[in-house]
Amino acid sequence: MEIPDCNIVIEDARSLPTLCAPDRIEQIVKTCYPLNSVSIVFVTPATMRHLNNLYRSKSGATDMLTFAEEPGTGDMIVCSPHIAIYARRYGIPFEVRFWHLIAHGLAHLQDLNHYEPKEREHFFQVERKFFEKISEFLPFLKAWSWDDYYKYHYQIGEHR
Question: Number of folded domains in the chain?
């Protein structure tokens, strides 16, 4: 079996606790995700604002953007300060939000989306499976209710 390639690029590593350290991210992503190649790039809020405007025509920064080159291969662009903002908004630890976003990005790298109602259920199932795989490495994640997080983030939050 070929070992997947996982590149971690850090332009801005602010707010990255030990449970989200690059070596840990690389280990978990390589083990949990049958991919060809993925890059996880940590950027500043200014860079994220620029990318969000350029690729999504949205003003302001966001916590993550995902670009799939082909199913299983692509880039996740992460903005740690905005992960912290959303974590505070949801009342959850930074690490929970961070690892949920990794699961979310991995689902997008499978060329899946949640924008249309008919796509959502399958996307959420795949995302949840990735989160559960990640939780095997980080047992503290099992203490957080996926259903509560899902309800807030997708039904009430910004991913409508």
Answer: 1
